[in-house]
Amino acid sequence: MPLSSSFLEYLKKVENGGKVGWDSSKELWFPHASPEGGNDTIAYGHKLLDSEVEQANEGLTDDEVEQMLIKDLDTAEYGAKNILQDHFNEDFDDLSEDKQEMLIDFAFNLGSYGLKRFPKFVGAVCSDDKDTLCKEYKRYFTDGFGAKKELKQRNEEFYKLFLA
User: Is 133 exposed, middle or buried (0-12, 13-18, 19+ CB in 10 A)?
Assistant: First the structure.
């Protein structure tokens, strides 16, 4: 599915609005530590594969990281379609573009299986239940001390793009 430019800009903002890893003098992206550990991340939430580390350490262009983002979003879309069909008995392709993008965002951020942890949200997306959507769209993370914290900026931007 071709993604809207507003959705791509939203993702760039919530994934790395501060442009961590961007070297403006070289006009290249470089890896930075991933919050969840493991391999580093580059640009807009792309977790580097072992086979990508060496090239990424030399720096990647805007076009290269944009292609990574598109590929990651294709993977998220594929996962969202499968989860919707297999666990919610819904057809992803029957949904409007903005509803598809909401689910792609969740699958991108949480992994496609993450959608299963938000059945009320998924149900609200599919049934166009805005009241429930407004109660269920917020995401949280657990900090290093075990405290649950809201992904405040992401939630605010999600609301502005999809629910306002």
Answer: buried
Dihedrals φ, ψ of 149, to 5°? -130, 145
> Do residues 164 and 130 lie in contact, with contact meaning Cβ atoms separated by under 8 Å?
no
- This prediction has a pTM of 0.92
Exposure pattern of 27-48 as b/e (b: 16+ CB <10 Å)? ebbbbeeeeeeebbbbbbbbeb
Q: What is the pLDDT of residues 13-72, one digit of tens each?
A: 999 999 999 999 999 999 999 877 889 999 999 999 999 999 999 999 999 999 999 999
DSSP string covering the chain:
-PPPHHHHHHHHHHHHTT-TTEETTTTEE--B--TT-SS-EETTTEEPPGGGHHHHHT-B-HHHHHHHHHHHHHHHHHHHHHHHHHHH---GGGS-HHHHHHHHHHHHHH-GGGGGG-HHHHHHHHHT-HHHHHHH---EEE-TTS-EEE-HHHHHHHIIIII-
Q: What are the residues whose beta carbons fall under 8 Å from the beta carbon of 140, sequence distance 6 or more?
A: 148, 149, 150, 151
Burial of 25 (0-12, 13-18, 19+ CB in 10 A): exposed
